[in-house]
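Me: I hope this is not a bother. Any chance you could explain this protein sequence and its structure tokens? It all follows right here:
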Amino acid sequence: MSKVAFIGLGVMGYPMAGHLAAQGHQFYVYNRTMAKAEAWQGQYGCDLAMSPSAAALDADFVFTCVGNDDDLRSVVYGDQGVLATMAAGSILIDHTTASAQVAREIAVIAAQQGVGFVDAPVSGGQAGAENGALAIMCGGSEEDYLSCEPIMQAYAKTITHLGPVGNGQLTKMVNQICIGGLVQGLAEGVAFAINAGLDAKQVLGAIGAGAAGSWQMHNRGDTMVNDEFEFGFAVDLMRKDLAICLTEAQDNGSELPVTELVDGFYEQVQAHGGNRWDTSSLLRRLPRKDKR
């Protein structure tokens, strides 16, 4: 067994850390909000640390799962950051959905003290984290990847090594680009079905096994028809992710007209108080006979 630290007990990190704790490693966690850390400890029984650096002391593997680039830097750098105490030969694995730029930046600084780095954003939502069925997209050296891959199996359905540091984050951007357009299409289809006088749930059942079927349809279709959005992946987080995608697109010369359009639609959802609604709340923008 290894000594493992996990930094960040948010919606995703909380169950992911729980799966790691169940493996029997010497395990330490840190979370900025102590009440949540104490709740996690009450459920899983492992040790709490008072800072990222304390959690990472003598750890073989340190996992981070926080909000954005700035949050990531705050738990990695400085006297209280994990790199202050990580030893040569250890590996830092980041599950944050962040920019490829910050991943490459941290990898360079970590390498200066002999610490490996793998950017490993995840997809699958809260349910995937709780069920140990996440898709993990990894960037880093093959050696670092192969070292940490068996541990990540605790909460993974698939784990893919996609090349050097930064490629994991770039792949997660592709994931979010695809989801944005898909959810908008699903919202339009549901609204159309309702306005046409169809039983929208029956329609989704009829087409779900065909070419139109998707994870979003199977997991969000019924809740969309029910007008239920107080759960899932928050609009605020999706807009953060899409901003990363749009910035990267400017740098690599890609055109993302649909992504830009959908980002604007999410801005409208936020303006109506939907900051924490699930991303399927795009339906709320569209006129429906049952909501007029």
